[in-house]
Design a protein that fits this description.
alpha/beta; Rossmann fold; globular
Length: 247
C-alpha cells in the first residue's frame, strides 16, 4: 500500500537515512533531501530501491526559504505530499561567553527555521481547507531541550526547546485540518557525526548516566517515527516522544 509522498529533510545519513529507509519499507514514496552530500543520499535511495521501495534524492538547502520552496516543488512532482519529517538540524560548540551572531544564526536557522518553513509548505499541501487530504508532520527535536545540553551547546538546546513549543502549537493549529504533528526527542544516538564530534572517550562519559547503559541506534528512532506517521498513531498529536534510554 502506498501512503503517499514523505519528505525527509537531511536524509542522506544518520537518523534521517534510517527514517527514510524504514518509511519506504512501510509504503511511503520518500523524498530524500540532502544539502551537499549527494553520494550519501544516493546510497540511501539505492538501499531503499534494493528492497523494492521507492525514493528520490532531492538537493535543497533547507536553512533557506528559497531552498525549502524548491524542495517541496520537486516533491510535488512525485505525487501528493502526505508526510514530513523535519530531521535536518545542526549544532555548534560555542559557550555563551564566546557566542557570535553567526553561531546564533546557524543554530536557529538549522534547527528552527527549517522546521517552521518546511512545516508551512507541508500544511499548504495537506490542510483540508486548502483541498488537501490531511497528513502527518514529525519533528526531530532533542532531549537537550529538557536537559539543557552539554556545556558549549546551550544554543542548540534552546533551538530544540523552540521546536518543542512549535510542535505543540502547530498541532493545536492544524488538528482540525486533518494534520497531526508530533515531536521525537532523541537522546544520545550513535551516528557517524556524533561519534566523530564526541570521540570514543567523550561518548562513554555521555553514555554513563543513561539508564539503559548505551547510546541509541538510528533505527530505534526510525521505528518510532514510522509509528507516528502511521494510522496506528491516529489519536496522537502534540505529543513529545522521548527516546533517550531513560536519561
Amino acid at each position: 500500500m502506498t501512503r503517499g509522498v514523505l519528505v525527509v529533510t537531511g536524509a542522506g545519513r544518520g537518523i534521517g537515512a534510517a527514517i527514510a529507509k524504514a518509511a519506504a519499507a512501510d509504503g511511503w514514496y520518500v523524498a530524500v533531501n540532502f544539502a551537499r552530500d549527494a553520494d550519501s543520499a544516493a546510497r540511501t535511495v539505492a538501499a531503499i530501491e534494493a528492497v523494492g521501495g521507492r525514493a528520490k534524492a532531492i538537493q535543497a538547502d533547507v536553512t533557506t526559504e528559497q531552498g525549502i520552496v524548491a524542495l517541496f516543488q520537486a516533491a510535488d512532482a512525485m505525487g501528493p505530499v502526505r508526510g514530513l519529517v523535519n530531521n535536518a538540524g545542526g549544532s555548534a560548540e560555542a559557550r555563551i561567553s564566546d557566542i557570535t551572531q553567526a553561531d546564533y544564526d546557524r543554530m536557529m536557522d538549522g534547527n528552527l527555521r527549517t522546521t517552521v518553513f518546511c512545516s508551512r509548505e507541508a500544511v499548504r499541501r495537506m490542510a483540508t481547507d486548502r483541498g488537501g487530504e490531511g497528513g502527518v508532520i514529525v519533528n526531530i527535536g532533542s532531549r537537550a531541550s529538557v536537559l539543557g545540553g552539554q556545556p558549549g551547546r546551550v544554543m542548540y538546546a534552546a533551538a530544540k526547546g523552540a521546536v518543542d513549543g512549535f510542535s505543540v502549537g502547530l498541532a493545536n493549529e492544524v488538528g482540525k485540518l486533518g494534520i497531526r504533528v508530533c515531536c521525537i526527542r532523541p537522546g544520545v544516538i550513535r551516528t557517524e557525526s556524533h561519534e566523530a564530534r564526541a570521540g570514543a572517550d567523550r561518548l562513554r562519559q555521555i553514555t554513563a548516566p543513561i539508564a539503559l547503559g548505551r547510546p541509541g541506534e538510528p533505527e530505534e528512532v526510525a521505528a518510532v517515527a514510522v509509528f507516528l506517521l502511521s494510522p496506528a498513531a491516529s489519536y496522537m498529536t502534540g505529543a513529545l516522544v522521548d527516546i533517550g534510554g531513560g536519561r
